Amino acid sequence: KLLYSIAVATLAFFAGSCQKEGFESGAQKGTVTYTVEVPSAVATKSGVASDGVNNVNELVYEVYRIVNEDVVDGEKVVTLADDVLYRGTAPVSAGKATCKVDYINNQNHMVLFWAHQADNDLYNVGNLRNVTVNASVAGNTHANAAFTGKDILRNGVSDCFGSVTLTRPVAQLNIATTKQSLVLENGRAVDVSKSEVLVSGLSTSFNVA
User: Fold this and answer.
1) pLDDT tens by residue, 128-148
2) Could you report the per-residue pLDDT of 6-25, keeping only the tens digit for each?
3) What is the DSSP string of the chain?
4) pTM for this one?
């Protein structure tokens, strides 16, 4: 059986490092303690339910202030400030992570999450609103597993708790045939082993928001 697998990466937690970029001096802040989970029942890019999850070892998160919320053509549209308020990472173990997120009291915020294998160079996650794929890194492996999610904090005034279950942002296209050759409508025969499949028009970036 000949199998052609094309990983379509349409797309990109924290006791570790953190970066506070947008908090003004003297701003009243609260803290949300998040429990973040990677669903173990989700099949990975290799088709195995657990291995991809086991490779995920880092959560990246970003916090943005919400500047406007509207409904356009029946769809909710949330506009975020350009600058990130808070960015950090935290370790993921057995598909779970715990992290603490600071926010400004009496303002609405959106928290973006991205979990992946930290030493895999496939995804560029320096900006979770524009996660891109490193085209030079190829292969349909467990190391390419990634998960994403988001949450909205509304008018927080004190410390609280939250939970988020991540989902997979990456699509996979498998093209397979059990035949060595195919006969087209015009009568021409195609040698499958010498053929290529071209997929075009795919997105090369992913916005977690």
Assistant:
1) 999 998 866 555 667 788 999
2) 333 333 222 333 344 444 44
3) -EEEEEEE------SS-EEE-SPPTT--EEEEEEEEE--TTS--TTS-TTHHHHH--EEEEEEEEEEEEEEETTEEEEEE-SS-SEEEEEE-BTTEEEEEEEEETTS-EEEEEEEE-TT--SEE-S-TTSEEE-TT-----GGG--EEEEEEE-S--S-EEEEEE-B---EEEEEEES-SEEE-TTS-EEEGGG------S---EE---
4) 0.73
